[in-house]
């Protein structure tokens, strides 16, 4: 039984989220009915002219007091435990989840697959395989929301947020922006298309272009990064080979792990964290490079980390 049957369940967690929702609805209904039943009963019993006992009685019952304190407490702590379990699962993508990169901007969703396939307001995903979305925004706060999967996650400028799901039904499901983001917020939506793995592989083949990492490499030259970070540059700039995932000492004495966010910020706000031993001469690329291109650059650096193996 589900009160949310109007909405299709198309992901591995959707059914269990609905059960929790139903339980909360049921509990609220029982409490509401109880309150109203007492109200009506007292109204009738103590109506004007009734023979009810109105003498001022001071009788306390510890048993009743403990019951109405402990029973609701146990119920609501139980609900909390149940919900936190689902929440933790929603926050923890399985290690084999395939990454797809999402950039939100007023007012569209741009997605790119590691193979370079790029889409706007559409996202193709395989059936039965966990998919992990790595998301950021080019301008204001948006929110990625697929009701049929029961997943929703804010998408923020200057930060990477993640969302994962395993689609369990082939079809085309609504995608909405769930955070008011300006004039065309209500039209900022699209479709998530779930395909059988074989069809999905075919779709990937048909739309294959330059891979994300290769595109990142091309951008590395196009934006002139290689002029300073290249192997035979005269400028003293950090070598980026094998940088990804390594611990970087900073000029203020602290350390940072070179993850997606660090690399993103080093491109957009290079003065924020200066690598120790280097002059703060890197220009900011804020406004000059799109978030989707930054993701491609990160993908390329990530691929360089893998190829250099032990250098972390
Ligand atoms: Cu984007 Cu609302």
Description:
- By secondary structure, the chain is α+β, with helices and mostly antiparallel strands.
- It is built from 7 helices and 12 strands.
- The longest helix has 32 residues, at 14-45.
- The chain binds dinuclear copper ion (CUA).
- Residues 104, 107, 142, 177, 179-181, 185, 188 line the site of dinuclear copper ion.
- Dinuclear copper ion is lined by residues 104, 107, 142, 177, 179-181, 185, 188.
Q: Count every beta strand, where a strand is a DSSP E run of 2 or more residues.
A: 12
SSE arrangement, N to C: HHEEEEEEEEEEHHHEEHH
Bound molecules: dinuclear copper ion
Mean pLDDT: 87
Tell me the helix content: 25-40%
* Main sheet record: 5 strands, mixed
What's the tally of helices? Answer: 7
Low-confidence stretches: none
SS class: alpha+beta
Gap between N and C termini, in Å?
52 Å
Order of strands, main sheet, comes to: 3-2-1-5-8
Radius of gyration: 27 Å
**What portion of the residues fall into strands of 2 or more residues?**
15-25%
Question: What is the molecular shape?
Answer: elongated
């Amino acid at each position: 039984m589900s009160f949310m049957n109007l909405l299709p369940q198309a992901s591995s967690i959707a059914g269990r989220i609905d059960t929790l929702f139903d339980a909360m609805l049921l509990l609220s209904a029982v409490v509401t009915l109880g309150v109203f039943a007492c109200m009506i009963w007292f109204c009738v019993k103590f109506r004007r002219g009734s023979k009810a006992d109105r003498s001022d009685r001071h009788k306390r019952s510890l048993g009743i007091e403990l019951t109405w304190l402990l029973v609701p407490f146990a119920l609501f702590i139980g609900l909390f435990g149940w919900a936190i379990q689902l929440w933790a699962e929603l926050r923890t993508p399985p290690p084999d989840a395939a990454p797809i990169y999402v950039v939100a901007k007023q007012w569209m969703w741009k997605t790119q697959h590691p193979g370079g396939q790029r889409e706007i307001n559409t996202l193709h995903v395989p059936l039965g395989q966990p998919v992990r979305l790595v998301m950021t925004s080019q301008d204001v706060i948006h929110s990625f929301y697929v009701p049929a999967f029961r997943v929703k996650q804010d998408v923020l400028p200057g930060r990477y947020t993640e969302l994962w799901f395993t689609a369990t039904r082939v079809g085309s499901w609504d995608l909405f922006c769930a955070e008011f983001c300006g004039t065309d917020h209500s039209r900022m939506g699209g479709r998530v298309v779930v395909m059988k793995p074989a069809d999905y592989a075919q779709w990937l083949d048909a739309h294959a272009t330059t891979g994300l990492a290769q595109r990142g490499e091309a951008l590395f030259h196009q934006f002139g990064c290689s002029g300073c970070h290249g192997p035979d540059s005269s400028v003293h700039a950090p070598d980026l080979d094998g940088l990804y995932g390594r611990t970087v000492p900073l000029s203020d004495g602290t350390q940072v792990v070179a993850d997606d966010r660090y690399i993103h910020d080093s491109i957009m706000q290079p003065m924020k964290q200066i690598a120790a031993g280097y002059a703060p001469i890197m220009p900011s690329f804020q406004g000059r490079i799109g978030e989707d291109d930054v993701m491609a650059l990160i993908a390329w650096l990530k691929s360089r980390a893998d190829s250099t193996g032990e250098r972390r």
